[in-house]
Amino acid sequence: MSTVSAGASRPARRAVVLTTTLLIFFLLYSLGPAWFLIVSATKNQTDLYSTFGLWFSGNHLADNLREIWNYHDHLFVRWIGNSILYSGLGAAGSTLISVAAGYGLAKFEFRGRGALFGTIVGASLLPSTLLAFPLYLVFADVHLTNTIWSVLIPYFVNPFGVYLGKVYADSAVPTELLEAARIDGASEARIFRSISLRLMSTGAITIFMLDFVAIWNNFFLPLFMLNGERTFPVTLGLFAWEKQSQVARDMNTLVLTGSLLSIIPLAVFMFALQKYWRSGILMGSVK
Questions:
Q1: pLDDT digits (tens, 9 = 90+) for 7-30
Q2: CA 165 to CA 287: how far, in whole Å?
Q3: How far is CA 150 from CA 82, 147, 232, in A?
Q4: Cα distance between residue 1 and residue 8, in whole Å
């Protein structure tokens, strides 16, 4: 009996060791780029090419921050502000539309609802990069390129957000509660504003968080729509600096330091909303 137990425990221990090893490997793999940015942001141009890339050789972080702050009349700060503006307004509009559309699909019966929902699911499978050039042609026809609307309006339409809104409405809003409110004489607009929107608040924050991160990291749409560097988001601005660094290598420290700074707002945003998106993801997964 003891021999059998010992034999059975050895494969279990091997599985634990293998799983732990793989998790450590993926953790290091995931944190590697962030570690590289932290180390590189502390180096000057000479140390960047003459020392080991994954370890410190000197502390020039203050000099790099001062240089990136003063470059072209605080241009990097303008890019960060643009990213916050595009991501905040775009995610807010997308969240409101997604929650309202998802609520309508979940709680109202109408002809063609299944076909409409299938179309939305299919549209969510299209890669955003595939739509960048057609969107540019549309906005060029109405003379809206190189404006804030050329990047905000496409962000407002998010098929995957509508799908999530329907999932959250199905699981968070009881139909019986809506019927009771209708019997009491409440209008549909008031029911949505006062009851449904509050019940779906966790799901709405999750959709907002996903939209905010996706818009912050979006590259192709601003690349097609914007042509003035003071309108660039930080992703496109860093790309412009990287292109310059191929000619002038002294731009590399700015690119690496700027890349590190660009992820700090996202990290703060994620930590601030972590209790909401965790429960929101769990709600969606249960459904």
A1: 556 668 888 889 999 999 999 998
A2: 12
A3: 13, 6, 12
A4: 11
